[in-house]
Design brief:
By secondary structure, the protein is mainly α. It folds into two domains: about 100 residues; about 120 residues, Four Helix Bundle (Hemerythrin (Met), subunit A) (Up-down Bundle), CATH 1.20.120. The protein is built from nine helices and no strands. Helix 1 runs antiparallel to helix 9. The longest helix is centred in the N-terminal third of the chain and has 56 residues. The N and C termini lie far apart (about 70 Å). About 30% of the residues are buried. The mean pLDDT is about 85. This is Nitrate and nitrite sensing. It comes from Vibrio xiamenensis.
């Protein structure tokens, strides 16, 4: 009898262990999937910004089919987020979907500055949502070492995004002397912040596009009079924004690889930067 009871207890404990292991695996997979989809939405926002920016400045009829595909993908992926997220998290993904829909609405009537601002806010919103998932994951993993490192690096990314926002706002005054001074001031701050990010992800900052952007920042800071047009300056901020996202993407990939799996290559089409 004692042997039977012992066996039943052993099977019961084993069953509980298997159950909790499966629950943990499901939780990890859900967080991982959410990060992957948010990452894809962020890239789609960048693609949408690039195409609408080109349409506003060069050709109103450019890549309309590609734009429609991107917009359909953004809605599909945001619907997937809402459907698979835990009940408490569904409202924040519905808010994200509303922001995505605002990108698509009447963008043809916007100025370039307004278009940049709206897309920038949505891109940052995606990054903040990814940060929420990462923080929750770190808390559950009980890895204080990873948590401290992530917090420090995220603060650096956050500060750099704030400086980029200030630089982007100052571009609208490029035609005035005071505006030029503000642009040069923010470019100098931006260059220093990007150098700090190189400590987090050297390869991202050393990429050809980022190296060229850093060179342009240096030229702006050192020149007596600004010769770049507003269009060229907006493109510079877009290149810098991409580099910042790449740094954060590397942070997330390192984190998920340590806790679960490395992030896959984003699977979104069409492939337009």
């Amino acid at each position: 009898m004692f042997v039977v009871v012992s066996m039943l207890l052993s099977f019961g404990i084993l069953g509980l262990l298997l159950y909790f292991s499966k629950q943990r695996q499901t939780t990890l997979q859900r967080k991982y999937d959410v990060l992957v989809v948010l990452r894809e939405i962020l890239l789609l926002c960048r693609q949408h910004r690039s195409l609408t920016h080109h349409a506003l400045t060069q050709s109103p009829q450019t890549s309309i089919n590609a734009l429609e595909q991107i917009e359909d993908l953004m809605i599909d992926k945001s619907n997937h987020l809402i459907a698979t997220a835990q009940f408490d998290n569904k409202p924040m993904y519905r808010i994200l979907q509303l922001k995505l829909k605002s990108l698509m609405k009447e963008w043809q009537c916007r100025s370039v500055a307004r278009n940049q601002m709206i897309h920038g806010k949505t891109i940052r919103h995606c990054m903040f949502l990814m940060d929420e998932v990462a923080l929750a994951w770190l808390v559950e993993s009980d890895r204080e070492d990873l948590s401290d490192e992530y917090h420090l690096n995220w603060q650096q990314v956050l500060d750099t995004m704030e400086v980029l926002t200030q630089l982007r706002i100052s571009i609208q005054d490029v035609d005035s002397y005071e505006g030029e001074l503000r642009i040069k001031y923010h470019c100098d701050k931006m260059r220093r912040k990007m150098n700090q990010l190189s400590l987090i992800s050297p390869l991202s900052i050393a990429s050809p596009s980022c190296s060229e952007a850093m060179l342009k920042l240096g030229e702006i800071c050192d020149c007596e009079r600004l010769t770049m047009s507003a269009e060229e300056l907006y493109q510079l901020t877009t290149d810098l924004s991409l580099s910042i996202s790449q740094v954060y993407d590397q942070m997330l990939s390192d984190l998920t690889e340590t806790l679960y799996l490395p992030l896959p290559k984003p699977n979104v089409t069409p492939d337009t930067q």
